[in-house]
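Below is how a single chain appears once it has passed through the pipeline. First comes the sequence as given, then the structure the pipeline wrote out for it. We keep one example in the README because the format questions we get most often are answered faster by looking than by reading.
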Amino acid sequence: MSAEATNPGAHSRRRGLPRIDLRRLGRAALLGPASRDRLPDAMGHVADAHRAHHPDADLSVLRKAYVLAESSHRGQFRKSGEPYITHPLAVTLILAELGAETTTLTASLLHDTVEDTDVTLDQVRAEFGDEVCYLVDGVTKLEKVDYGAAAEPETFRKMLVATGNDVRVMSIKLADRLHNMRTLGVMRPEKQARIAKVTRDVLIPLAERLGVQALKTELEDLVFAILHPEEYAHTRALIADNATAGDALAAISEDVRRVLREADITAEVLVRPRHFVSVHRSRLKRGELRGTDFGRLLVLVGEDADCYAVLGELHTCFTPVISEFKDFIAAPKFNLYQSLHTAVAGPDGAVAEVLIRTHQMHKVAEAGVVALGNPYASVDGAEAADGAGPTAGAEPYDGERADPTRPGWLSRLLEWQQAAPDPDTFWTTLRADLAQDREITVFRAEGGLLGLPAGATCVDAAYAQYGEAAHGCLGARVNGRLAPLSTVLSDGDTVQLLLDRDAASGPSPEWLDHARTAAARIAITGWLAAHPEAVGTPDAAPRASHALTADRRGAANAVVDLPGATVRLAGCCTPVPPDAVTGFPVRGGVVRVHRQECRAVERMRALDREPVTVSWGDASECQVTLYVESFGRPRLLADLTETIATAGAAIVSATVEPPSEQRVRHTYTLGLPDAAGLPGLMRAMRDVPGVYDVSRAQHPATA
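Resulting structure:
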C-alpha cells in the first residue's frame, strides 16, 4: 500500500491544450464531495474517459470488477487516511484517459486484490476469465516472507516475464507507480528516495521503451522533485518567472497557421509547454533560455503525406535549422514513436522547435503500447468488438503474438534474464541494460535484422544472433569489409559474423571490454568462469614475424620459343599449369614467365618489351605462392601446415606477419606434385577455422 499526500510535482503552469493531460484528473475530481465514511463513486469518471476512446465498449464488466474491488478493499485505508479503493480507481482512470481497452481497465481495478485481500487468482479467473487473471497475476508482488531482500528484484523479473507475453502487464504497473509517486509525500524521506531511484532506474526507462510518454514525463518530474529538490525548485521558479514565455511561441504558431492555410493544408497547431525535466535539460545544454525554449509547436495533420507537406512549407517560409531536423516517420524509434522534428527561426531570430505528426501518431506518441488496445486480438477476438486499436481485425501471426515491442529490447531482456539466476546480478544488470536508452538496427548479411542498443559492437551482434554459439566468433565483416570484434556498429550497418567451427573455442577476457549488452556480458562471464584454464591462453598467432624454410625445389615446367634461354617463373604471380602465361626476356638470358593478368605484364608492354610465347611442358610438378588472411587464434599455424601436408604439398617457405587488430597474414610458397591439386588445396585451407580468405600472389614485382 502507498500513502497519499500533496503531489510534489504539481505546478500551476498552464499545459496549453495537450491531447492527454493526466494532471487535470486530480484528487477533487476523483473523490468529489464524498466524506471519509463513504466510498467515492469515481466510476463515472472512468466510464466517461473510456467511452471517449471506445464508444461501444461494454461497461458491465467494469462495474462488476469495481464491486469486487470495493468490497474486497473495504475497511482498508491508505496512510493518508483515504479509503484504499481510491488507488485502483485512480490507476484505472489514468489508463482510461490513455485509451486502454476494457480488459486492461478491468485488471487495473483488481490489480491489488490478490496481493492485499482474500481474493484469489482462481476467483478472478472464474469471474473475469484467463486474460484478466493473467494481468492481475503479472502485477502482483512476491511476498517478502518468501523472498526476503530478493522480493523486489524477483517481482520485477516476474513482471517482465509476464510482459513478454502481454505488454498490458507493464502498462498497469506504470500507471500504478505513477499514482503512488503522486501520493508519496507522507512517506519517510529515505523511503521516498528509495522508491524514486527505482522509478528513475527501471520504471521510467520502461515507460520510454513502451512509448508511454504521457506517463514517462510526469514520472520524470515527480522523481526530479524528490531526488533533486534544489534543482527542481530552481526550475520551477524559472518557469514561474517566464510565465509569459508562451507568448513568443504563440506568435510563431499564428504565423505557422497562416502559412498552412495559404498552402491549403488542414492542420491543428498547438503550443506544447515543456515539462520540468525538459526545461532543466535545456538550461544545462543552452545556458540562458529564451521564451521559445519553454515549449514546442505541435502540428497535427490527417495523413503521412501531409506531414512532409507541412515540413516543406515551414522550410520554405521560415529559416530552418537544418541540424535539428530528424525524420522518425521514415525511420520510427524502437518504441513505436513517429514524428518529424525540425526547428525554424522567426523574424526576430527566435528559434522554435516544431513536431509534425498525424493524429494517430500523436496518440501512439503519448500512450505508446496502451494506444494499441489489445495487440493480441485476432479477427474474431473478444477485444475486437471493443475497438481494440490498430491491430484489431489484423491477421494473427502463426501461433505468435503480434506484439510490436517484442522483437527488440524486450526479447533480448527476456533472453538474458534466464541466464542471471542470482537476484543481485539480475537487478544490477537490468538497471544497466535499461540505462541504454537508444537503439540501432543492423542488417544481417544473410538476411534479417538485429535490434541492438546504441554503442553495441560486433561482440554484441554475435551473441544477439547466435546466443552461446557466438563463443566461437572469430571476427566480422561490417558493410563488406573485415572488422575486429571491437568495432562499434552504427544504425543501418550490415554485419556478417564469422564463426569458428571448433566447438571447444571460446571468448577471450578482452571481449568483456567490448560487450555492451547484458546478454553478451553474462554469456562471456559464464564461459570464462567455466573455463578458467583458457583465460591465460593467447588469442592470436605469434607476434614476431618468422619464416619456415625447406629445400627449394627446381624451377619451371614452362617451355619458351627462345633457344638457350633459362626459364624462371615470376614470384609476383607464381603461375602454374594451366594458367594463361606470357614471358619477357630479362638480363642474363633469362625469360621471366608471368600470368597474363599480372600487373607486371602491363608494365613490360608499356616499356615496349617484346613478349615471348610460353607453353607448359609435360611435367606436373609446380610451385605457387599463396596468401592466407585469418583471425588470430591458438594452433592456427599448426592447423594450416597440417592441412598443407595432408594435401601432399611441400612448404618451400612460409612467413607469418605480426597480428594487426586480431588479423594475421600468412605467405606460403608451396611445391605441388600436380598443379591440378591447387584449387582443392586452397579450398581446404579456407576451411581451416579462423581463415577467411586464401588467394594466389598477385602483387607487383620488379622484373
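Confidence is low (pLDDT under 50) at residues 1-40, 378-405, 536-555, 699-703.

See the next section for the split statistics.
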